[in-house]
Amino acid sequence: MIFSLFRKDPRRVLIATLYKGVATASREPGLYASLDIPDTLEGRFESLSLHMVLILRALRHLPAPADDVAKDLTDAFFADLDASLREMGAGDTVVPKRMKKLASSFYGRARAYDAPLQEQDEVALAEALGRNAQGTEAPAIPLARYALAADRTLKETDLAALLEKGPAFPRPEAFVGGGVS
């Protein structure tokens, strides 16, 4: 009985690996150096949120158990945010308030990006990403192109490939200047 507590749950390992792939992609230096996401705490949250939105959109279009994977991945995302707040020294009384604000921000981004991604509307997505990810009123056209390309690629991936190989995101540098359309 006691030894079962020390066995790794294969599902948790898969979710942790998938989340690690999303988090790693969100920290790709080209997102900051080439696509102008500010390399700040807020910018890193925006990048992670964008990548989470993209992977959750892909999972939404896949058959079961993708919906369970999406729920577990979202739980892993918020657990990571909670742990990060605590690691930065936020106390037990402050963390719930900050988590509520972060959750509201994340779901707001998801709503703001969903329709433009669905419609493949580069202009609307660029405006939303400019406001949120870059903190400016200028449209983030290269970042929007990156997100649209990632959305297309992820939607072409089946659940087994996502879980085995992890999510594939394009290279940010490919979208600088004229970029990929």
From TrEMBL:
Q: What is this protein called?
A: Ubiquinol-cytochrome C chaperone
**What Pfam family is a match for this entry?**
Ubiq_cyt_C_chap
Which superkingdom, per the lineage? Bacteria
Q: Where is the Ubiquinol-cytochrome c chaperone domain?
A: 35-169
Describe the family membership recorded for this protein in Swiss-Prot or TrEMBL.
Answer: Belongs to the UPF0174 family.
